[in-house]
Structures are given as C-alpha cells and as structure tokens.
C-alpha cells in the first residue's frame, strides 16, 4: 500500500513566534527568511512563511539555541503588515 505524495503547499503557513527579550538584527539570518521585530513589551516577534512542519521544528530549535524563553507560537493566514521588521541580510 503506497501513500499519496505529500503536498508541501498544504503544510505551508505563516507563523508568528514570540520570545522574551530582544534579538539583535544579526539573528535574522538564522531564521530562514523570517523577519524579526523588537516589541515595546520586551519581546521579539519572529514571523514569516514556514514551508512545512519540519521547517517549523527547525525554527523552534533556533529559538531554543538563542537562550531566550519562548512566549508564544501562532499560525496565521498572512504576515502582519503593520509590524516594522528587520529583514535578513
């Protein structure tokens, strides 16, 4: 019995990940094209398109590696255009 091919687009989605503390802009390159926004409440918002669950788990491993506490992870329909961002370099 074979399984149907996986539809990567079905697994893709925009995610918003908040960590406690501010990440420096240099961290943007570690997050695969995600944008980082320092929030007034002392958190950093990491947001962007994630292609599949494996990529999401990889991003969460990078969050763990920062040493900053994870506050929240949310899947959304699209990025928040109102947020000023730091883009990867």
Fill in the keyword field for this structure.
89 residues; alpha+beta; Alpha-Beta Plaits; 4-stranded antiparallel beta sheet; 30% strand; globular
Largest sheet: 4 strands, antiparallel
Mean pLDDT over all positions: 82
Q: Proportion of β residues? A: 25-35%
CATH fold field value? Alpha-Beta Plaits
Could you state the CATH homologous superfamily? ACT-like. Chain A, domain 2
Annotated CATH architecture = 2-Layer Sandwich
Query: Element order, helices and strands?
Result: HEEEHE
Calculate Rg over CA atoms. Answer: 14 Å
Spatial strand sequence of the major β-sheet: 2-3-1-4
Indicate the structural class.
alpha+beta
Unreliable runs: none
What does this structure look like?
The chain has 89 residues and is an alpha+beta fold. It has one domain (11-76): Alpha-Beta Plaits (2-Layer Sandwich). Helices cover 20% and strands 30% of the residues. It has a four-stranded antiparallel beta sheet. A hairpin with a 4-residue loop joins strand 2 (35-38) and strand 3 (43-50). The protein is globular. It starts with 7 loop residues before the first helix and ends in a 13-residue tail after the last strand.
Brief summary:
The chain is α+β, with helices and mostly antiparallel strands and 89 residues long.
List the helices and strands and how they pair.
Layout (H helix, E strand, L loop, with lengths): L7 H4 L1 E8 L14 E4 L4 E8 L2 H14 L3 E7 L13
Antiparallel strand pairs: 1-3, 1-4, 2-3
